[in-house]
Amino acid sequence: MIEANDLTKRFGGLTAVDSVSFSVGAGEVFGFLGPNGAGKTTTVRMLSCLISKTSGDAKIGGYDIGDESNHLKIRKLIGLVPDNVGLYDELSAYENLDFYGKLYDCAPAKRKENIERFLTMLGLWEKRDAAAGTFSKGMKQKLAIARALVHEPELLFMDEPTANLDPESAKTVRDFILELKKEKKTIFLNTHNLDEAQRICDRIGILNTKLVATGTPQELERALSGGGGARQTVVLLQEPPTDAMLAALGPLSSSVKQEGNRLTIDLKDPERENSLVVDALVKAGGHIQSVTIASASLEDVYLKLVREGGGG
Length: 312
Ligand SMILES: Nc1ncnc2c1ncn2[C@@H]1O[C@H](COP(=O)(O)OP(=O)(O)OP(=O)(O)O)[C@@H](O)[C@H]1O
Ligand SMILES: [Mg+2]
Known about the structure:
The chain is α/β, with parallel strands linked by helices. It is 37% helix and 27% strand. It has 2 domains: 2-222, P-loop containing nucleotide triphosphate hydrolases (Rossmann fold), CATH 3.40.50; 229-294, Protein-tyrosine phosphatase receptor IA-2 ectodomain (Alpha-Beta Plaits), CATH 3.30.70. The protein has helices at 40-47, 71-77, 93-103, 108-121, 137-149, 167-182, 194-200, 217-224, 243-248, 270-283, 298-308; strands at residues 2-11, 14-24, 29-33, 55-60, 63-64, 78-81, 155-159, 186-191, 203-208, 210-215, 231-237, 257-259, 262-267, 288-294. The strands form 3 sheets. A 6-stranded mixed beta sheet has the order 6-7-8-3-9-10, with helices on both faces. Strands 2-1-4-5 form a 4-stranded antiparallel beta sheet, covered by helices on one side. A 4-stranded antiparallel beta sheet has the order 12-13-11-14, with helices on one face. A hairpin with a 2-residue loop joins strand 1 and strand 2. Helix 3 packs parallel to helix 5. The chain is elongated. Residues 11, 14, 16, 34, 36-42, 83 line the site of adenosine-5'-triphosphate (ATP).
């Protein structure tokens, strides 16, 4: 659905997006993470044909963004929830959506149906006749999402759709994205929220002017947890371990770190070896409170890559 090759944008002397290559398949939810100024919005604006690229190329649904004669076709394929919502304040919620639907040649009956469907899904149907200017930030954000969908695009670009939303509204929007995912829409999501990216994205790209990593959330975490190297298991005992308990761990005991009643053990394959550890400790008289596998979180991966990944 999206195919980018060495896509680059320079503003005068500043390179905002540097030679970025990635692809997003139909029906995939792709998350774009990166610090402020990383080039996320710039990438989305190039892909939505709002600004021109400097070099490289990209295709949306097979159409080259560099060819202006494709822009209308691309615009019909995509919906954009921009980082600034940009609604017509004096028009009602319904009128805002109707206006966009018309702009995209969505037939009247279909328009009516879609407006009702999306306003209902986002909890705004009751407010359809109120002027958008009277809406709260969260309501405006939801209206902007509905607007991006009226013409039934296959691909939805969302630029930080949950920024500035209260936890409950953010959840409504996240659940809504998952609903769209079930309907097999392709979604490109810019976000700063690592937890959100982890929960809803199939794959994630980490951008810092250059694309520093892509993969599923699990792949990214595993890459940092040592790529096949040791992982750590943390065992909490009710009492600090006795020498007999430590001895019972046999060859594993060389990697054990002990702090009070807490043992941290390096294991190659914790899913298999944890039960050996537990058996050994219990047989030696240990009482176990909990056993957890410590692995790098997406946050650890993100911070590491963004700190060492070559920016600007
Ligand atoms: N129209 C413009 N003219 C000049 N520089 C620009 C323009 N738009 C963006 N930039 C610069 O390009 C870089 C990338 O900006 P961009 O808005 O794409 O970042 P972002 O990843 O979306 O950041 P944020 O997380 O803050 O939204 C920044 O250094 C910004 O100042
Ligand atoms: Mg941005």
